[in-house]
Amino acid sequence: MPSINSNIGNVGRGFAAFLSPPPEGVVRFSVGQPNFRTPEAVVDSAKNALDAGEHGYTRSQGTEEVCNSVANYLTKYGIKADPNDVLISPGCKQSLLYAMMTCLNPGDEVILFAPAWPSYDGMLKLIGAVPIHVPVKRENYHPDMDATRAAITSKTKAIIINSPNNPTGAVYLSSEVEELTAIAAENDLWIFDDMIYSDLVYSDHLYTSPATFEDGKERTLTIGGWSKIWAMTGWRMGWITGPSQVMEGVKTCQASSASHVPTFLMGSGAVALGLEKEPQEFLEAFTERRRVFHSLIEEIPGINAPKPEGAFYILADITGTGMDDIEFATRALEEAQVQVVPGSLMPGGEGLVRLSYGTSLDQIREGCKRLKNWLQG
Ligand SMILES: Cc1ncc(COP(=O)(O)O)c(C=O)c1O
After folding, report:
1. How many CA atoms lie within 13 A of 360 on its CB side?
2. What is the whole-number distance in angstroms between the Cα of residue 92 and the centre of ligand 1?
3. Which of 17, 164, 219, 352 could tie 343 with a disulfide, CB 3.0–4.6 Å?
4. Which of 300, 265, 351 has its CA nearest to residue 63?
5. Burial of 52 (C-beta count, 10 Å sphere; 0-12/13-18/19+)
6. Residue 365 CA, ligand 1 centroid: distance in Å
7. Are 272 and 230 in contact (CB under 8 A)?
8. pTM for the full model?
9. 210 or 17: which carries more pLDDT confidence?
10. What is the atom index within ligand 1 of the atom nearest the CA of 92?
11. Count of other CB atoms within 10 angstroms of residue 203
12. Ligand 1: does its nearest atom lie under 6 Å from the Cβ of 165?
């Protein structure tokens, strides 16, 4: 057999090992997806588009309608995007990969705030770039500016910001985003701003885009998607926008690979971004789940977690149980029938487990009861 890419063996598969569907009856705090149905108007739009025969090739970057709708949506955060510089890709993940393919060369270093969502690490390695994991502050999971500055070398080319954050639930303060933007400007770095959880905030400080700061405009790629806020994980739709020159490169990446997302889904993307009721209902449900989940977690011996400020994850310190996170996750599944993701699948996540409240309140109550009984027993 011929040899394969020697780099591929270094690339991890994120949480995959701990996400496999467990036996029936297991409470799953593992999966990072909302349990809501995609809003009906969005589904209807896709059905109608198919009935209307919208199934041929179309504009590679996305139809004008959906690109306009993204540019319009981003204005709520003060992000000024020219619709010509918006591209719709098969998921936020793909947009991130295009950003990296466009801006980075093999050997370039990229700062991640650790523990970071593991796909960043995998994608960077796929293209031969080097992830540099800079630990966040353990008490609140916010970035440590001194550590960030210290991690920058002559090879550093970009910083990835993800706020609201998976897996930590942190929402960075506007002053922190401003400082990160200043650090990027001082060192002439790209900022890849993964804003996929932007509307899911429970704290009094909202999502801030680095592109809204003077220094950030020309170096920020704003990357998001429909998966989380509109409960559209399986639709595989994301966006990316940034300075025109970079977007030309991003367009090349898509034209040379996926071509575009399915034609009959593009109208649905625009419909989703125009909705108010459903995203608000989802946010209210998450707000309640987060309140209940965090208060129940606090009652469990040996587990501690800062209150999440956004997204739909609690990142809990389980060192008080005397177990490491892999043992905790393995035994929680076997002995308590609760599936969680161990933090050490991510550099800097040792001693932590990620609990997702993409699931129902009933499941949250049941899972916490099981964990409590297990640890007390
Ligand atoms: C931080 C972050 N970015 C991107 C994604 C993936 O988004 P998409 O489904 O649009 O590819 C996820 C999914 O878990 C995520 O947590």
Report:
1. 6
2. 6
3. 352
4. 265
5. exposed
6. 26
7. yes
8. 0.97
9. 210
10. 10
11. 14
12. no
